[in-house]
Amino acid sequence: AINSFLGWEQEFFVVKAEYYRARPDLVACGRTLIGKLPTRNQQGELNYFAPLPGTVKQLMENIQAVMLRVGVPMAVMHNEVAPGQHEMSPIYCQ
C-alpha cells in the first residue's frame, strides 16, 4: 500500500481595513496590482524572526482554535519575510 501525505503552508498578508479600502486594486481585484520595489538592503530576516504583532497573534490563535475544533492542528505560526506577511501550517492527521 502507498500512503501519500500532503503538507502545505498557508501564507497571507494582514492589512488594516482602512489601508485595504484605500487601495482600489485590493478592493476591486482582491490582489495587489500596483506597488513598488522594496527599498535597498531591506533586511527580511528582521521581520521573519520578529515576534508576531499582538493583533496578528490574536487572529492566528483564533484561527488555530477553529482549525483544532474541525480536527486540523497547526504546526507553525510565524511572520514571513515581507512586512505584514504571515504563515500557518497545518499538520495532517488520520
Structure description:
The longest helix has 16 residues, at 54-69. With 94 residues, this protein is an alpha+beta fold. Strand 2 (74-79) and strand 3 (85-90) form a beta hairpin. It is 34% helix and 17% strand. The chain is globular, with a radius of gyration of 16 Å.
The gist of it:
This protein has 94 residues and is α+β, with helices and mostly antiparallel strands. It has four helices and three strands, in the order βααααββ.
> What is the percentage of strand-forming residues?
15-25%
- Whole-number mean pLDDT: 82
Structural class: alpha+beta
| Overall geometric form | globular
Question: Could you tell me the number of beta strands?
Answer: 3
| Helical percentage | 25-40%
Pattern of helices and strands: EHHHHEE
| Total helical segments | 4
Strand order of the largest sheet: 1-3-2
Which residues form runs of ≥5 with pLDDT under 50? none
| CA-based gyration radius | 16 Å
Span between termini: 16 Å
Sheet with the most strands, sense and barrel status: 3 strands, antiparallel
Strand-helix topology:
Layout: E1 10-13, H1 17-21, H2 24-29, H3 44-48, H4 54-69, E2 74-79, E3 85-90
Antiparallel strand pairs: 1-3, 2-3
Features:
34% helix; 94 residues
